[in-house]
Design goal:
With 398 residues, the chain is of the alpha+beta class. It is built from 17 helices and 5 strands. Strands 4-3-2-1-5 form a 5-stranded antiparallel beta sheet, with helices on both faces.
Length: 398
């Protein structure tokens, strides 16, 4: 059976993810449960498991505490897709009582929590409240916490695939104490270029990229440097998207506040991701070359040119991945709605001829072309059934 190319992180990014200790994720999830429980019943903060967790985190890598605080903040945010029946339900923590509890008990653990919250929260008034409380206590905090506002985000690398389904953006950052961390965000270009997944690794970006490259088994994946400003613009755009069919992962959206904090340290005014749409004249020339070739010979240009234009408008005309084909042919009558029904029914056949021609233009490997053609075969019957069903419904309404 053909194995379709997943829309999750690439094999290289999967290798990166294994570097992110599962223990850290379990600790952050436990902290969220503790915060929810503390928010529901009266209990002295110094007795809570959350405080014990913070105490242990203070002795570890800074990501231990940063991840915990990020999880707490995310737990206070309403789920924008909570209305979906299939969406896992979650309790929301009320931030104000949580802060009241931290402020009401003057111990070093709550001071640390407040100091990190002061940097990661996106509410200016609450940030100021946290900073005032921390300043009034004069507790001795680890240097990285005291100087968290001066984190240096210094390098960005993009892991990309030749077919362009998505990109993993890696951001290397250094705390004032020299501790390194790397944030990784997956941008799904088949889903509104939204951030589909993200996680953090307690290591330098040089180490993360080197190990990812060593473990990468996909010859079509490459690593390229990216400007810090563009990285911020891509991720900010991705965070504004809410793709309906987007799964939650073990770390996403739990680490969203941490990712937002990290990109806020990058320079502004970058260029956001632009879908690879072609100039109309260039696309028309590509179509002409196809119909003039042996690949396009079976199709009458006058009947099929409009359908081909609609197909090419779904992404890069010369790069066809399995997820893109599945998305395009899922549309049924929405694709080819302005052409004759018999022409619309031939969309899979047209793609079967066009994809090898297109991939030859862009130098795509034969193996990827074969995967794409298998995908067309897999969904062709469902596509045609959908078109005929929708046509029948339209005729019955008339």
């Amino acid at each position: 059976m053909r194995e379709s190319r997943s829309l999750s992180v690439s094999p290289a990014a999967g290798s990166v993810r294994t570097m992110n200790e599962a223990r850290r994720r379990r600790k952050a999830k436990q902290a969220r449960r503790d915060a929810q429980r503390d928010n529901k019943r009266p209990e002295t903060p110094e007795e809570t498991p959350l405080i014990d967790e913070v105490r242990r985190a203070l002795a570890g890598h800074p990501l231990d505490l940063l991840g915990t605080v990020g999880m707490l903040i995310e737990a206070t945010k309403p789920d924008p897709l909570a209305w979906l029946p299939s969406r896992p339900k979650r309790d929301t923590v009320d931030l104000e009582p949580l802060l009241d509890g931290f402020i009401g008990v003057r111990i070093v653990e709550t001071t640390a929590l407040l100091a990190v919250l002061a940097e990661l929260l996106d509410d200016t008034d609450l940030q100021l409240r946290c900073r005032r409380e921390v300043a009034a206590r004069r507790d001795a905090l680890p240097g990285w916490i005291a100087d968290l506002g001066n984190v240096e985000a210094y390098q960005a690398v993009r892991m990309t695939h030749v077919l362009g389904d998505g990109d993993e953006l890696l951001i290397g950052a250094r705390l004032s104490t020299g501790d390194e961390l790397t944030g990784v965000a997956f941008i799904d270009h088949n889903g509104l270029s939204a951030v589909k997944d993200a996680f953090f690794v307690p290591d330098s970006i040089d180490t993360v990229v080197r190990l990812a490259a060593e473990r990468n088994t996909d010859p079509d994946t490459s690593f390229v440097d990216m400007s810090l400003a563009d990285t911020r613009a891509w991720i900010e755009h991705g965070l504004r998207q809410h793709a309906v069919f987007m799964d939650q992962t073990e770390t996403w959206p739990a680490c969203r506040p941490l990712l937002q904090w990290l990109i806020s340290c990058l320079p502004p005014n970058g260029a956001k991701y632009q879908s690879p749409r072609w100039d109309p004249d260039e696309q028309r020339q590509l179509c002409d070359e196809f119909f003039d070739s042996d690949h396009g010979a079976p199709f009458d240009r006058r009947d099929y040119a409009e359908l081909l234009d609609e197909l090419l408008d779904t992404g890069d005309p010369v790069r066809w991945s399995v997820p893109r084909i599945e998305r395009v042919l899922r549309g049924g009558r929405q694709l080819g709605s302005t052409v004759a029904v018999d022409v619309a029914l031939d969309a899979p056949e047209l793609l079967t001829h066009f994809i090898p021609f297109a991939h030859a233009q862009s130098g795509i490997r034969d193996e990827l072309t074969a995967e794409a053609l298998d995908a067309v075969d897999d969904v062709a019957e469902r596509y045609r059934d959908a078109v005929l069903r929708e046509v029948a419904e339209e005729e019955s309404e008339d």
